[in-house]
Amino acid sequence: MALTTTTMSGMTPQHVLFDVADRIATIRLDRPERKNPLTFESYAELRDLFRTMVYAEDVDAVVIASNGGNFSSGGDVHEIIGPLVGMDMKDLLGFTRMTGDLVKAMLGCGRPIIAAVDGVAVGAGAIMAMSADLRLATPEAKCAFLFTRVGLAGCDMGACAILPRIIGQGRAAELLYTGRSMSAEEGAAWGFWNALHPAESLEAEAQALARRIAAGPTFANGITKTQLSHEWNMTPEQAIEAEAQAQAICMQTRDFERAYRAFVAKERPVFHGN
E-assigned strands of 168-254? Predict the structure, then answer.
C-alpha cells in the first residue's frame, strides 16, 4: 500500500499567504489594510493547510507571521459577525465547530508551530497565537481574548482549556472575563510570550528558531508535540508510561543512532527525520 504523503511547497491558497523554504512553512493572513481579519474562507484554508501538513514530506516547522505590522484582528466584523447574527442554531454550530477544527488541526499537525506576533492579535488571532507551540512578539504587541466584548463567552476555540495551561487559571480567567488587552510585558512575564524582539527582527528571529527546531530530530519533535498535547489529560502514572512507549519508538529511529555515532566521533549530529 502506498504511503499517504504530500508536498506543500507548490500549494497556493487563495485567502492566505503561504510558502515553504528550507523545510519551513510560513503562513500569514493577507489583509494588512484591515489588520488581517479572518473570513469564513481564510478559516477554512488555514484548517485545511494544517490538516494537510500531517502528511507533508517537505515541512518540518511552521511560522505564522504578521503582515503589515499586525498579526490578526480576529473575525471580520462585516464578513463573519454580521452574517452570524442572521444564522440559525444549526449553522451557528457548524461555524463554531469549523473554527474549533482550526485549533484541532494546529494541535494535530505534527509540526512545531511558532507564532510571530506584531501589533494586534485579538479574538481568533489571539487564539491562533495561543495554539502555537512557541510565541514571539514585539514590545508593541497587544493580545486580547475579547469575546465578552461582543456579547459572547470567553470559552471560544479551546481558550478555557489551553490558556490556563500557559499563564495560569487566575490570569486566564481575568483575560477571558474582561476581554482586556494583555500587554507584551505582561505576556512575557506570565510565560505567554517566549521572547520579545524588535519589530524589524521579529520574523528573522522566528525563522531562526524554526530552523533550529527543524535541524533537530523531526520525527521525535512530532512525538514531543503529541505528548505535550495529550498528557494534560493523563495522570502522572499514565504520562510516564506514555512517554516510555514514545521514547522507545524514538529509540528505533536512525536519528537516535546518528546522535550516538556523532557523539562517539566528537561531531555534531546531522538529523534526517527518520
Answer: 181-183, 195-196
